[in-house]
Predict the 3D structure of the following.
Amino acid sequence: MIIGEGLAIAMKIESHNHPSAIEPFQGAATGIGGIVRDIFAMGARPVACLDTLHFGSLEKARQKFLLDGVVAGVASYGNCMGIPTIGGELHFEDAYEDNCLVNVTCVGMVEHDKILKASASGEGNLVILFGSTTGRDGIGGASILASAEFDETAEEKRPTVQVGDPFTEKKLLEACLEMRDRGLLVGLQDLGAGGLSSSASEMASKGGSGIDMNIARVPLRESGMEPFEIMISESQERMLACVTPVNEAGVMAVCAKWDLDATVIGTVTGNGRLRIFDGDEMIGDMPVKALVDEAPTYCITPVRPPHEADVALADDHYPLPGDLDAALLELLASPNICSRRWVYRQYDHMVQTNNALWPGGEAAVIRIKGSRRGVALVTDGNGRRCYLDPRRGARLVVAEAARNLSCAGARPLAVTNCLNFGNPEKGEIYHQFQEAVEGMAEACRELETPVTGGNVSFYNESFGKAVYPNPVVGMMGLVEDTGQIMTHGFKDEGDAVLLLGGGRPAVDGSEYQLRIHGEVAGRIPDVDLNQEKKLQTLVRGAILEGIAKSAHDVSDGGLACCLAESAIEGGVGVAVELEAGLRPDVALFGEAPELVVVTAAEADLERLERINGAGVPVKRIGRVGGNRIRVSAGGKDVIDTPVAEAAQVWRESLEKVVAG
Amino acid sequence: MKAKVYITPKQGILDPQGVAIERALPALGFEGVGGVRVGKYIELELPDGEGAGEEMDKMCHKLLANPIIEDYRFELVPD
Amino acid sequence: MKAKVYITPKQGILDPQGVAIERALPALGFEGVGGVRVGKYIELELPDGEGAGEEMDKMCHKLLANPIIEDYRFELVPD
Amino acid sequence: MTASPQIHTDVHAVRFGVVVFPGSNCDADSYDAVSTFTGAEARYLWHKDEELDGLDCVILPGGFSYGDYLRCGAIARFSPIMTAVRRFAEDGGLVIGICNGFQILLEAGLLPGAMHRNEGLKFVCQLVNLRVENAATPFTHRYREGQVIQVPIAHMEGNYFIDEAGLSELEANQQIVVRYANESGEITGEANPNGSQGNIAGICNRKGNVFGLMPHPERVCDPLVGGVGGRGVFESVINTVSGL
Ligand SMILES: Nc1ncnc2c1ncn2[C@@H]1O[C@H](COP(=O)(O)OP(=O)(O)O)[C@@H](O)[C@H]1O
């Protein structure tokens, strides 16, 4: 995405679900490594990572082990690379017990005239392999790990585990960017799934060329490797470059400077074929097109699963809890809502000194050095809601990601996505996939956020049980002036608390339904994308006009948790009166699209009205002040909790669960 | 009794530490060194008894080593 | 020849990793384990020759171990 | 922070060198902190350089030199430039080691002591409060003694160790420059993020011209990204060098 001032942003998300389930530390580490390579292969300097993590319930020791290992793996690789991990997501649901989701997003910055292409062209040009040596690690990784259901044979797949080497990757990064700056490259491609075989054929295909490759020249770390093993090895930290003969020496010199192995392993031809030689003997010859572009197409008949309901639950479907304060505290303590500090404290989120908004807020914002502009980033996934209604769920995920950006004061610009699903050969999974993709497409069209790329992860399924259908969205937004970034903490006593938007809260698929009533059922509300867009325009307007002093959208845990989080962050209380009409628990904890809480000084309320040309509903619901979170309905207190108590529960919960 | 545990990276698994050390050695004046593999060496005291060996094996497997990427062996030394 | 190097935290010096393992063991069902010390185990190949022992000692002292907090010993095994 | 930082008119003549080791990742941050926020000159030095011509201060930046494999700083300290840094320090040149740079200075023996893994065994990235123990060094005289500054840490191995004799010597010579403290400047166990002996966050050599610290002053030189609590370190150097 071009963002002005000669700059472009490269952004992509990738899953490393299966490797992380086998070896959480190395699985997550090599996940970071892979996506970071994707970004610098484009010639962009990686400036941020975000990690989206889904595990089973933390009551199980195995899940704690996975969480601990994955977080440590992300930390070890990202920190060593000097790329700040500035955001992400963390969810715990039983559906992920046997199949955790580890999706990593990397964002890079590049002057757009320096973007590199992953193509090999120009007959007679050289193909150079550089970086780590090639071993047997990860052989069959892509096919075995990413495309099969997990079962008892998991143990036997262990030898395919790859070990990450962030130090070599850091050198690789600097070397590639140096080659870019010196104009030494025709094309550059990382070696990912499928190893040399995939990378070489993709480069040739993109360049409309062919490649003759001599695998006898590939530097090996193990003896006795078969030619096919060399071709499909997924050893990490390797790159393939296409270079004119004139620049060969330059590329070799840069590799020598960074102490990286580099070998000419092939030449570009004009015959459209990938020919593989072992010394003088030709051992493989295939048309590039067959390998890359002519993949078979599956035809599967979608089947709507019986759990997808046609109607929403009635507001009085569940009994009204006797103690709503206790319910609020329970929700604030939920591992899906409480503070994520235990995680992001392990990530270097400040390196590169661009962290204009720190982890823990609506979105992460990094400034662009030498400019007033900044880039805001979020990832969002909500499998539980997509499980109840994949189309509505996917629309909601996109809307919420955009809403988060808008609440930080950023204009949503582009989307990357990672589609995590079960076995697509099954009709029900295929149905979920199709619905989610269409829902996502609808939302992206309406919100004018193009999808620039993404990743698909299937077969997240064990013993016949699939994960929740989980389209994870990574969204990027532009902040025109980093001086105007908005935060969600309440600011000053006496500020008016406003509820913007017309969304109606519902318990279906909410955290409240799961935690307090132990169910996932009903039908989630659909987002009115047109209204959502108007709401976000108003929120951004209120921020840019200097009217809003805080902005926070109503999401997990409903209005009550939204207010509590802003009170905790701001260190100040709030008093709010609920509208008549909804049962208090639904009003407090129900989750709704199209709702944002904004605070503003009394004197500015008129200005807000004036900029609300589109007629977005704006209700004044209370004021900031005191040291308690107070909510009343019909003049009677339904919530009255000290901020300090809420803060303690919210802050310490995750650490306690992990340690306990 | 005392246990001594030796943990090494599995054959064929990349050992980034070993590689980095090996590459650095010539510059430090140590020529001709190869095959560097870095593992762990753990000492501990455990109660004497029949099942000590089995116990140790379990401990290595569950906690001390990561059997997915590491091999281990141990010695038991009576105090 | 082959060298095996054992590096251990110096006596009386804090070993945070050892402490953590010791604390984790009871929860995993291993009672009565104490004195856990986590060190390193390094294997490498070096050229045969007279001065191999001296060379190894230098390498350990200068690079492989930090004598302020670690002790080391090594064995040389002819191939 | 000291009130309105007044900078010598010769500030442009003050020259910092930032060493780049393979695996350094705070080199650019240190470079930016110096060149953008103090106006002094900064230039990169490659770890294979053997000369430090015309420099006033050398920064060994944070990161993971050589991946921090084996031990943090253990391999980097053999880089050719470290011979030059040692000579430079012996001649009275100013040297700052930040985080990994501190670890390298320890391994190289330019500062006493060693680093253990953090007590919690996890990487810790957060803002901490530091109490300035010695405001008479070339790196801290822009602060007041006892002043509390907010500076982030980001490390896995910052648990400083030194033997009893060494510790007494550090104390006797006022070589402890900054300690982890709480907001009001008290040195408490809770304020210690990594288990460091005596809450030590940064020390200098006996002569006072080599300074190592785990926290990252270069990350807090810009109000937009976390405050300006670290600027004083670079301004102190500039004032020292330009004779203020
Ligand atoms: N969910 C998705 N949404 C949009 N584009 C996608 C999605 N999944 C994959 N793509 C795009 O398809 C191409 C191939 O993706 P993938 O097979 O994951 O390639 P790679 O291994 O190079 O990451 C890439 O351009 C990628 O961005």
